[in-house]
Amino acid sequence: MENPTFYYDNKIVKSFAYATLFWGVIGMLVGLYAALQFIWPGLTFNIPYTTFGRIRPIHTNAVIFAFVGNGMFTGIYYSLQRLTKARMFNDVLSKVHFWGWQLIIVLAALSFAFGITTGKEYAELEWPIDILVALIWVVFGWNMLGTIIKRRTQHIYVAIWFYIATFVTVAILHIVNSIAIPVSLFKSYPIYAGVQDALVQWWYGHNAVAFFLTTPYLGLMYYFLPKAANRPVYSYKLSIIHFWALIFLYIWAGPHHLLYSSLPNWAQSLGVVFSIMLIAPSWGGMVNGLLTLRGAWDKVREDPVLKFMVVAVTAYGMSTFEGPMMSLKSVNAISHFTDWTVGHAHIGALGWNGFLTFGMLYWLIPVLFNTKIYSKKLANTHFWLGTLGIIMYAVPLYWGAITQALMWKEFTPEGMLRYPNFLETVTQIIPMYATRAIGGGLYITGVLFGVVNIIKTVKTGKFVGDEAASAPALVKAGGKAAGESTHRWLERKPVLFMILAVVVILIGGLIEIVPMYLIRSNIPTISSVGPYTPLELHGRDIYVREGCYTCHSQMIRPFRSETERYGEYSKAGEFVYDHPFQWGSKRNGPDLAREGVVTGRQYKPNSWHYQHMLNPQALNVQSIMPSFKWLISNKLDISTTARKVKVMQFLGVPYPEGYDKIANQDLIKQATEISENLKASGIQCDPDKEIIAVIAYLQRLGTDITRTGPAVSFPLSSNK
Amino acid sequence: MLRQFLQNLQGVDVYGILSTLIFFVFFSIVAYQAMKIKKEDDRKYCRFPLDDEDQDIQNDQDNKKN
Question: Chain B contacts of A284, Cβ < 8 Å?
């Protein structure tokens, strides 16, 4: 009897492939624009929508969720159908997934440009878009699992294990990290505060790398690399060990983003230990990928697809070695808050994700269009420009990072900081930023060549939207057959497989996060730390809106070089009312944790802040900070004060009962005082301007632990 | 109750050792399962994504086996 015929849906694969290229170009161009602002700060043109703080999340989200996201879906929709010998479960779900995802990308870009952000890296989307993300992700998962269930093959191949792990883990990470209480349609406060928020955020942030940028791409590697090389995967056994060890270990590693911070030591140590152990499964995957090419290395010389894939897998190996090294506390003491992290991230993004995506597309597009690649020469040019681009991007950043970190830490023989002015350490590495931008420019030039090559390839071929295939129907097998290994049996049970994957990833998450909430001693309270005043709260929200955290940290590590420069090191109890935390991860400017301490090294009067926001270069010609002059003309929206106070009360911030009704009285009083103070310095600024709230917030930073009396009480008139 | 239980835990940082132990137990089970797979099966499964014909044959064989 003939096997029944069915049709693979190539149309959805094509749509995702085109979206990958489109968003890839956009995301990378925005990245280049951001990089150029380090050299020419005036490139923001003094408008709010183009400042680094707003376009940095556009760049990161566009590259991660738009470029890599669409790339991931391209590969999954193609390979899943072939590996299960089934058409996608439902064409409507495929279309809803595709258009829903593109809508999310557009909404994300617009919202970030308008300053609508949660202020949590890689999770900046506000709550309505977060809900949309969750819904579309469920559509993707439903479609994927439906396809797996109606498959015509007995077993699910290793690539599908990675797809399943991606789906369930990203869902859990997104939901847990995004829980927030809305203030309005465009504003919410996360339910977590301070240390807890930081832990959840970096548990999410690190695992966004793990389960959005790594596991799905490992799945793609396990499918497309053997296809492109026409060689079987090196070892099935290794893939089993690699898969389970990787998903188990990855979920624990988040705290390595918070070393030397106020996170309790036990959590930091867990993060370090599991990060180091991660080398083993990561390299297991790399070895399995590279050894798949055994006996086919001669093809690498000729075939641009394999060239891209080999460099991708090598970049994966490099960055998964570098990551654990950066998790060692002694290395992290130098690398953290510097461009080393940025260089590391781009080895992964440009090398691993970028090159695997282009390798896959150079293989896939000719297959979809029944043709050959238009120009191998052009593809090779793309490859070499990209490779050179990666090197020219990363090496100067490593150089700049180590230079800057050493300058931060250098003392004179007299025991004084050699470079007390933070700006000196920035201007020193401007040439490295310029070289980085050239590297990025080369990479993008290569991508543009790639796009032209793919468009030409598409034009020479003939697309088959519904590709015929045939396979025998699946005979449902029951229990374990004689001689069948347990894992092989498990591969016939996708639902059980998924449940086990969930259990494995939950172990790490629960052991790290639950104690942080339940054990009070993790976050010792400080009696002088109180809630923000209503004006400071508004100022903080503007700080978040403008993405100040993308350049300024609020976390002084317990190093002499930092306490000398910024003041007393940060304590966990200082952040208990911070929804969200704003510790930052990179210092393009100085730390601001003690900005308001009058006796501190960082203190500046109100008038300085006003002038600095208006025109940073007027105060220091070498400053790379953009102007925020709209803060001076924008009127502060105080209609939301009551709601903000109510939400904070709901989250446990101890404003007195009924304070929401009188909060604006306190706000106006404090704003008037700052306005009067500016007036005394010769600056005319009405108390109802946004700059007043920002100044209030900056002047509050770090002052609580230097207070001799109790915490600020409300209403403000009750303070002596 | 859980809160009280955890609060009374002495040396909660022993989590580091416990967590590592959990991983090694888990890893040992996975490694043992992987090692149990026969060499010829390992070779066969590695070919899975390569071509449709092989998959059909394998699928038929698996159907018969089960």
Answer: none
- The proportion of chain A whose per-residue pLDDT surpasses 70, expressed as a percent, equals 99
SS3 content of chain B, % helix, strand, coil (to 5): 80, 0, 20
Range of the domain at B19: 1-35
Mean pLDDT of A301-327: 96
User: Per residue, what are the HEC states of A1-38?
Assistant: CCCCEEEEECHHHHHHHHHHHHHHHHHHHHHHHHHHHC
For strands A5-9 and A466-470, give the pairing. antiparallel
Tell me if chain A has a CB within 8 Å of the CB of B61.
no
Residues B5 and B31 in one domain: yes
**Which residues 10-39 of B have a C-beta within 8 angstroms of A?**
12-13, 15-16, 18-20, 22-23, 26-27, 30-31, 33-37
Nearest to A515 among B12, B41, B66 (CB): B12
Question: What's CA A598's distance to the chain center, in Å?
Answer: 35
Q: How many CB atoms lie within 10 A of CB A676?
A: 11
Q: Answer yes or no: do A487 and B6 touch at CB < 8 A.
A: no
pLDDT of residue A711: 85
Phi-psi region of A323 (alpha: psi -120 to 50; beta: other; left: phi over 0): alpha
Same domain for B65 and B42: yes
Q: Are residues B20 and B47 in the same domain?
A: no
Tell me the average pLDDT across A476-499: 88
Residue A130 corresponds to which tokens in the numbers above?
Answer: 């977060």
Cross-chain Cβ contact A152/B59 below 8 Å: yes
Query: Do B49 and B30 belong together in one domain?
Result: no
Total tally of structural domains belonging to chain B: 2
**HSE toward the beta carbon, residue A643, CA cutoff 13 A:** 12
| Residues A17, A320: Cα–Cα separation, whole Å | 27
A26 phi and psi angles, rounded to 5 deg: -60, -50
Same domain, B1 and B31: yes
- Which residues of chain A are within 8 Å of residue B37 when distances are taken between CB atoms? 236-237, 240, 485, 487-488
Q: How far is CA A494 from the centre of its chain?
A: 30
Are B3 and B29 found together in one domain? yes
Query: Which residue in the set B6, B37, B62 is minimally distant from A485, CB to CB?
Result: B37
Would you list the DSSP string of A513-542? HHHHHH-GGGS---TT--PPPHHHHHHHHH
| Residues whose CB is less than 8 angstroms from the CB of residue A560 and which lie 6 or more positions away in sequence, other chains included | none
pLDDT digits (tens, 9 = 90+) for A205-240: 999 889 999 999 999 999 999 999 999 999 999 999
Give the tens place of pLDDT for each residue, A596-605.
999 998 899 9
Query: Cβ neighbours of residue A637 under 8 Å, at least 6 residues apart?
Result: none
Of A457, A273, A268, which Cα lies nearest the Cα of A370? A457
Query: What whole-number distance in Å separates Cα of residue A321 and Cα of residue A337?
Result: 19
Q: Quick: pLDDT tens for A94-150.
A: 999 999 999 999 999 999 999 999 999 999 999 999 999 999 999 999 999 999 999
Tokens representing residue B2 in the block:
């859980």
pTM of the full structure: 0.94
Q: Which residue has the tokens 């800057």?
A: A404
Burial class (CB in 10 A: 0-12, 13-18, 19+), B11: exposed
- Say yes or no: B30 and B44 in one domain: no
Shared-domain flag, residues B29 and B48: no
Out of A244-253, A688-697, A707-716, the most confident range is: A688-697
Average pLDDT value for residue range A394-401: 98
Domains located in chain A, CATH noted: 534-718 (1.10.760.10)
| Six-digit token string for A366 | 């000719």
Per-residue pLDDT, B63: 47
